[in-house]
Write a structure and sequence with these properties.
Blueprint lengths: L1 H15 L10 E7 L18 H9 L1 E7 L5 H10 L23 H5 L5 E6 L27 H11 L6 E6 L11 H4 L17 H30 L6 E7 L14 H4 E7 L8 E3 L3 E2 H12 L15 H5 L12 E6 L14 E6 L2 E6 L13 E6 L5 E6 L13 H8 L7 H8 L5 E5 L17 H17 L3 H4 L4 H4 L13 H5 L8 H4 L6
């Protein structure tokens, strides 16, 4: 039966012209963690984590120093990777916890008629409702879930794989997404002095312990990767497997995840394919996930969808070269952005950002600077609506009980508790205070993105250049934020939970700034 299914798939691929027959087409193994920032792998010199599997892939292939995710949130980041298109080019899939239009085909979907056996385990594209538009499988591939863990899911996938058929497998771990078991890092034997505290967080034992709990999760993901890679090796197929290990967005800490700062979008990335990629190299080229998508298509010798093609450029020339450092000087900029993350503001409005990262600078454009970047301090509790949809009763929650674009964690609790402390008070402001429309950071001298150079006359030329390059790219790719204001982003339904907030002053003064949201009216709680 398996052989017949393969023959039929092969025949279909040939008849449609979608299969470039190639005897050495590789298996494709993608391991993507949840919420891990660069440089948290021991291959980068981190002392906080030990990642032998990641390090092995890097030593067997290429370690990337400048890889960037499409968005600092899991759902849009994964959607952009799967389609090879920027988040502003895939409609609902480009925001968090919405839909995934079927017209945007993913590389797992395209590889099936090209003769690949496709599957996934763990977190594929999520959160969101992929079935709304008619899909029956997750856009990352048929799920091989197993109650005994991810590794057993991969084992089941391999057992079901037809003979002589290349595979494409997506391993989406939930590590290092919160919540964590508090103290798990210390319980494993880590010590507080191992924690690497970024400058946007205070150096305190409570913060260090939270970082070690995060490191524990990173190491657990790496251990799963190690077991899966050994299974491929035991089958004698690792040499002809394109291995990609990375993460979907930054670490779940204040001012990291859900922000276009370095710790939100700069990702670890290691790629190997022993039969094609010279080993032991490190590249500094700036690459994005849309480039990884293009790379997968070229490696598989399959054309990307013609109606909505990938916008990235394959990395195969750089990977197959013997170069270190900069392999392609043309790879000198990467784009990323975000819209709604959680339900964190009045009417669940988002915090729209677009960013361009070059070798030395990160420029961020905040399209709605009147909004709170992490959400306002307070939200409504115990909200009741009448049959006409009017709010009849509510209670305003406690101060600093909002900020829902920051994952709840001991680090956030610490910032709130010490907000009036002369030593630590500034840290909460860095994470939750309003930001100007333009931000510019010198990554070489300020990788933690704390010193905004926008408006500084010394950097006026750099600011103008990055703004011009960003806007030109957004216009060329049809971003609604620069084409018509971008209100359409707020109209895309959110399928996860919804919170309720006070109407902000800016909305009271100009109601035209609040778009009509039919989807939100349908989500109002019943009395």
């Amino acid at each position: 039966m398996n052989s017949l299914r393969y023959i039929l798939a092969l025949a279909f691929a040939v008849s449609t012209g979608s299969l470039g027959l190639c005897a050495d087409r590789p298996n494709i193994f993608i391991a993507i963690s949840d919420d891990v920032s660069f440089p948290h792998a021991s291959a980068y010199g981190s002392k906080m984590v030990r990642t032998p599997a990641f390090d092995r892939v890097a030593s067997n292939g290429v370690l990337f120093n400048n890889a960037f995710c499409p968005a600092p949130g899991c759902s849009p980041s994964r959607a952009a990777f799967l389609t090879g298109r920027h988040i502003w080019m895939i409609e609902e899939a480009g925001t968090h916890a919405s839909y995934f239009p079927t017209k945007y085909r993913t590389f797992p979907e395209v590889l099936i008629p090209a003769g690949y056996f496709v599957g996934s385990t763990g977190k594929g594209w999520a959160p969101g409702n992929f079935q709304h538009n008619g899909r029956t499988e997750n856009p990352a591939g048929k799920s091989y879930s197993n109650k005994k863990g991810y590794v057993n899911g991969f084992s089941e996938f391999l057992k079901n794989r037809p003979d002589d058929q290349p595979f494409c497998f997506w391993f989406g771990s939930s590590d290092a997404h919160r919540s964590y078991r508090k103290g798990s890092g210390l319980a494993k034997g880590m010590t507080l002095d191992q924690a690497e505290v970024p400058k946007f967080l205070p150096d305190d034992p409570e913060i260090r312990s939270d970082l070690l709990d995060y490191a524990f999760e990173v190491e657990r993901f790496d251990d799963d990767c190690d077991q899966m890679l050994k299974m491929i090796e035991a089958a004698g197929e690792l040499d002809n497997t394109l291995v990609i290990i990375t993460s979907d967005n930054g670490m779940p800490f204040p001012r990291a995840k859900a922000n276009c700062y370095e710790s939100g979008v700069h990702m670890p990335l290691a790629v190997s394919w022993k039969n094609r990629i010279p080993a032991g190299r490190t590249l500094d080229d700036l690459v994005g996930f849309v480039d990884l998508t293009a790379t997968i298509y070229e490696a598989a010798n399959v054309e990307s969808p013609q109606d909505f093609p990938v916008v990235g450029t394959s990395l195969m020339p750089e990977l197959a070269s013997k170069k270190d450092g900069i392999a392609n000087p043309a790879r000198n900029a990467v784009l990323c952005g975000r819209e709604r993350h959680s339900s964190s503001r009045y009417h669940s409005l988002g915090y729209p950002q677009r960013a361009i990262r070059t070798a030395d600078f990160l420029y961020i454009h905040n399209f709605r600077p009147e909004r709170w970047p992490a959400g306002p301090s307070q939200k409504y509790d115990k909200v009741v609506f009448d049959k006409q949809g009017q709010m009849t009763s509510y209670e305003l929650g406690k101060p600093h009980g909002g900020y829902h674009d920051i994952d709840g964690c001991p680090s956030l609790d610490f910032l709130i508790e010490h907000r009036d402390d002369p030593k630590f008070g500034k840290y909460l402001g860095w994470s939750v205070d309003r930001r100007p429309a333009e931000e510019l950071f010198n990554i070489k001298t300020d990788p933690d993105c704390l010193h905004n150079l926008a408006g500084d006359p010394k950097f006026a030329g750099v600011q103008a250049d990055h703004l011009g390059r960003l806007m030109a790219a957004l216009k060329a790719t049809g971003d609604a934020r620069v084409v018509d204001g971008g209100d359409i982003w707020e109209t895309y339904p959110r399928v996860s939970s919804v919170r309720w907030f006070e109407q902000p002053k800016w909305a009271q003064e100009d109601v035209s700034k609040v778009p009509e949201l039919d989807w939100l009216k349908k989500r109002q709680p019943r009395k």
